[in-house]
Amino acid sequence: MTTVGHSIMGLALGTAFLPRGLSKWSGAGFLVLMAAMACLPDWRVPFNRHLFKYHYHHSLLVNCIILAAIAGTMAIAGRLKSRRGWLVVAAISAAVLSHLLMDSFYSHAQGVQIGWPLGSYRLTLPIPWLHVQKQIGSFDWFHNRIRLMEILTFGPLLALTIIVRKLILRRAKGRRNDGRLMES
Question: At what angle do helices 3-17 and 24-38 cross, to 10 degrees?
Answer without folding.
Answer: 140
